[in-house]
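DM from R.C. (forwarded with permission)

"hey, sorry to bug you on a friday — could you get me a structure for this? deadline for the figure draft is monday and I only need the backbone to look sensible"
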Amino acid sequence: MANAVITAKELFDPAFLDSVSRFRILAKRVARGGVHAEQRSRHMGSGMEFRDYRGYAPGDDLRAIDWNIYRRLGRLFLRLFEEFEDLPVYLAPDVSRSMFHGNQPRAHAGLRAAFALAAAALNHHDSVGLFPFADELRVALKPRSGRVRMMRMAQALAAQQPGGTTDFAKSLGKFARLGMRSGLLIVVSDFFDPGGIEAVRESLSRQRHRLLLVQLTRKTDQFPDLSGDLLLRDCENGQEHDVSVTPDVLAAYRRAYESFEQGLHKLAMSQQAGLVRVDVDEPVVPQLSTLFESGAFVV
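My reply, with the result:
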């Protein structure tokens, strides 16, 4: 098994950064508790953009009273302003052993996709954290904002090494228990789990965050170029299996793969999640661009 890794220089490439500079993740509303940024908060407060009025109640800030309305109507009303806060973005790239398999491993495309989305968030003052996972999840970088964070993110992504076997239930279960502020969880993976699509569905349905699923694919996933009697080795656990690849076996495999694809699509629909498929053998950024066709990916 090739253990190829990507370098921070490859990630932190001026041309690559320029290609993602137009990307923007736009939240309809974000949970309160962050820092001042560009996203609209769910809460009304003392921000800069006027949004509405409401009647005065005992204990309200007297400075928010509109005295012009009081002089006209003899009633007390508060002016409400919209607060702008950062959107917490949580990157969860799959770094299981199989992701680093081969001369052009899926991990390279996955880490590039993760960095592109991190740059989109950091460019607009959102906070970004890094939570790589395989058989367990790690907190590689706690969520922070600022463009100066970009090089640190590139270095952290480039430092990722192959983990164990994919375990969505254990890894994403741990993330759910971290109690992070409600935000956007971006999972970058091929979504192949020994427990099947049900394990993926169960782990993601427990998240209280909006979801973006970045599925890393190859054409041979659906149409494997195999025939005859073969000894196949599982690239995660090393187990070997003698397989006779006949037309009937290939047809059964393709039906199983189509069922997996449909299951992932239904999962995204049920969770109101974004889903983008990235062919790891093609340039990453043009494929991610479909998320940002209107200028921003809205969550």
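R.C.: lifesaver. The longest helix spans residues 247-270.
me: no worries. The chain has two domains: 8-32+87-298, 36-85.
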